[in-house]
Amino acid sequence: MKVTVNCATGKNFEIDYFSFGNGDKPFVLIPGLSLLPVTPMAKAVAMQYRAFHSGYKVYLFDRKRSIPNGYTIEQMADDTVNAMRLAGLSKVLLMGCSQGGMMAQMIAAKYPEMVEKLVLCSTAATPDENARAVLGRWIELAQAGDMKAFNRNVFQHVYSKAYYDKYADSFALAEELGTPADIARFIPLAKACLGYDAHAVIKGIQCPVLVVGSNIDNVLGGKSSLELAEALNAKLVMYDNYGHAAYDEAPDLHERLIDFFEN
User: In sequence order, which residues have a C-beta less than 8 Å from that of residue 75 and are 6 or more positions away?
Assistant: First the structure.
C-alpha cells in the first residue's frame, strides 16, 4: 500500500499529513494528544486501517509543527480545516479520537460543509474532574522531564490493563522516548484540553454522529461518551473490556465504522 506524506502550509501553520487507500470516499482521522507526531508512523497506521484501503482515501492530519502557548482546541480545529482545504478536501467522513475528538466536534459545528458523517472516539465536551487530574499529572511529569515516569503514566491510563500487560515489553522500550522539544510541544497541547468546553458549540452539529466510548476509560471517562451521545442524538458503541484507546484496542471497531459510513 502506497502512503503519501505531505505538508499543508498556510499563513500561520505547517501541518504534516499523510494519505493512503484507493477508494473515492474521503475519510479523515484526527489523532489524540500525544508526545510525538503521528506522521513518522504513517506506514504502521496504514496497516492498522487496511480495512479501508479499497473503498476509501484515508487522511491523517497531525497538529501543526510549531505549537504556541495558549493554543486552543478551537484554533487547532481551524488550522486543521485550513489544511484539509489545502489538501482539496470537503464533505469528509471525519473521525476524531480523544483530543482529536474535541477538535472534530468544533469542525463539525463550525464548518458543517466539511463533514458528511462524524465519529467521536473516547472524547468529551469538556474534561471532568478526574480527567483534569490525569492531564494535570501528565503536565507535571512532562515539566519535570522524567520521561520514563511520564510515558509509563500515559500508557497505563490510555490502555486497558490487559492490553498494557500483553505488550509490556514494547511499552517498556517506548518509556525512554521524548526530547525537550517534544515536551515543549506536548505541554501547551495538553493545557488546551483543560480550557475546552463545547457544550454550547456542539448544539450546532447537524450531521449523523457515532460516539465510541469505554466504560473503563481512565482518562476522559465513559460518562463523557454517554453524555455526548445523548446531547447529539448519536449512535453509541460502548466497550467494557478496552481502555481509553478503545479505538486502537477493539478488533471490531473498523467493521462498525464501515457500517456507519455506508448505511
Answer: none
Q: Quick one: how far is CA 125 from the chain centroid?
A: 14
Q: Is the pTM of this model over 0.85?
A: yes
CA–CA separation, 225 vs 94, rounded Å?
17
DSSP conformation class of 142: H
Residue 88 lies in a domain: yes
pLDDT, one tens digit per residue, over 65-123 is 999 999 999 999 999 999 999 999 999 999 999 999 999 999 999 999 999 999 999 99
Distances (CA, A) of 52 to 21, 82, 253: 7, 24, 12
CATH number of the domain that residue 47 is part of: 3.40.50.1820
Please check whether residue 150 lies inside any domain of the structure.
no
Place of cell 466504560: 215
Question: Which structural domain range is residue 45 located in?
Answer: 3-126+198-262
- Residues facing residue 28 across a β-bridge: 59, 94
- Within 10 angstroms of residue 69's Cβ, the number of other Cβ atoms is 8
Give dist(CA 168, CA 163) in Å, integer.
Answer: 8
Residue 64 placed within a domain: yes
Grid coordinates in use for 212? Answer: 465510541
- The C-alpha cell at 189 is 497541547
Please count the other Cβ atoms lying within 10 Å of the Cβ belonging to residue 86: 16
